[in-house]
Automatic annotation (TrEMBL):
GO terms for molecular function: 2-alkenal reductase [NAD(P)H] activity. Residues 67-345 form the Enoyl reductase (ER) domain. SUPFAM superfamilies: GroES-like, NAD(P)-binding Rossmann-fold domains. This is Enoyl reductase (ER) domain-containing protein. The lineage of its organism: Eukaryota, Viridiplantae, Streptophyta, Embryophyta, Tracheophyta. InterPro entries: ADH-like_C, ADH_N_2, ER, GroES-like_sf, MDR_fam, NAD(P)-bd_dom_sf. CDD domains: double_bond_reductase_like (cd08295). It comes from the Eukaryota.
């Protein structure tokens, strides 16, 4: 319920318990309703803006923000009793910032709630292209898209003919990496957790091959089947036992792009990697990266990706859950493979 210059109900997804060395549960979060003024108070600073959240991005990295981890900067942690933090698409309702005015659409870091008062807009990007779905700014035109772009092109240094392997290949990032690799003239294989996702990769997203890792008794044999001459580029989203097997199947001067390791986030004891010594004999470069280091390339990325989207040369699969009530379940579903494509929470219609 919203009425300009008046108070509104503000539904929020609140963290009830820190999640330490275990899988998160829906009961670790609760949906509560508070009230908020739909106008900035006079005491606000000159950088403050008030936004209405339209679409919230549900991403695996959020798991790392709900630890009681004192090594993580306070601005990146979610405190018990506070709303979860993450990327979203939002509309500016009121602003004291010179770069943003009422009615502007933005994407960037906000909170899991209907309305957010943001005290710093350094992490926001103004949306100029509205002839594509707004939800795309939680995915292909937002942080996951930039992650795929920076990881594959800037870190991976692909060459035509490279043999590319992608784990969690149907997810928000993996589905794009595979399509970028095909556009670059590479041979591409992805792995996923269900036959439905395997079908999606091969028949809708243009991967050369894909397989369900849960149906493979021997992952080493599976990789040798799809990569008889070895792997040039591995886009790593999973970690653990899969990484260990991939190391044995890398080619000389191969590149491992470490984007995420979702298999390790909820373990009490992380899996050991036993085959690391091959990075010496095979001269493998293994590099991790954080997408925010590459945001200066966002205009360049838009120049590349928007024509591909409009020409139908890039597909993007979304899994949209309706309402903040669905958000805790959607987050948990990321760790059981329930989502098909990019998980998005639709909070309000524009």
């Amino acid at each position: 319920m919203e009425n300009e210059n008046h108070e509104a109900r503000n539904k929020q997804v609140i963290l009830k318990n820190y999640v330490i060395k275990r899988f998160p549960k829906e009961s670790d979060m609760e949906v509560k309703t508070n009230k908020i003024e739909l106008k900035l108070p006079e005491s606000c600073s000159n950088n403050d803006i008030l936004v209405k959240n339209l679409y919230i991005s549900c991403d695996p990295y959020i798991r790392n923000l709900i630890n009681d981890d004192n090594n993580m900067p306070a601005a990146h942690r979610t405190l018990v009793g506070s709303p979860l933090t993450g990327y979203a698409v939002a509309k500016v309702l009121d602003s004291k910032h010179t770069n943003y005015k009422k009615g502007d659409l933005v994407w960037g870091i906000t909170r899991w709630e209907e309305y957010s008062l943001l005290s710093s807009s350094n992490s926001l990007f103004k949306i100029h292209h509205v002839d594509v779905p707004l939800s795309y700014y939680t995915g292909i035109l937002g942080m996951p898209g930039m992650t795929a772009y920076a990881g594959f092109y800037e870190v991976g240094s692909p060459k035509k003919g490279d043999r590319v392997f992608i784990s969690a290949a149907s997810g928000a990032v993996g589905q794009l990496v595979g399509q970028f690799a095909k556009l670059a003239g590479c041979y591409v294989v992805g792995t996923a957790s269900t036959n439905q996702k395997v079908h999606l990769l091969k028949n809708e997203l243009g991967f050369d091959q894909a397989f369900n890792y849960k149906e493979e008794k021997d992952l080493d044999l599976a990789l040798k089947r799809y990569f008889p001459e070895g792997i040039d580029i591995y886009f790593e989203n999973v970690g653990g036992k899969l990484l260990d097997v991939v190391l044995l199947n890398m080619r000389l001067h191969g590149r491992i792009i470490a984007c995420g390791m979702i298999s390790q986030y909820n373990l009490e004891q992380s899996d050991g990697v036993h085959n690391l010594s091959v990075i010496v004999s095979k001269r493998i470069r293994m590099q991790g990266f954080v997408v925010s280091d590459f945001y200066h390339l966002y205009p360049k990325y838009l120049e590349m990706i928007l024509p591909f989207i409009k020409a139908g040369k890039i597909s993007y699969v979304e899994d949209i859950a309706q309402g903040l009530e669905a958000a805790p379940g959607a987050l948990i579903g990321l760790f059981t493979g329930r989502n098909v494509g990019k998980q998005v929470i639709a909070v309000a219609r524009e």
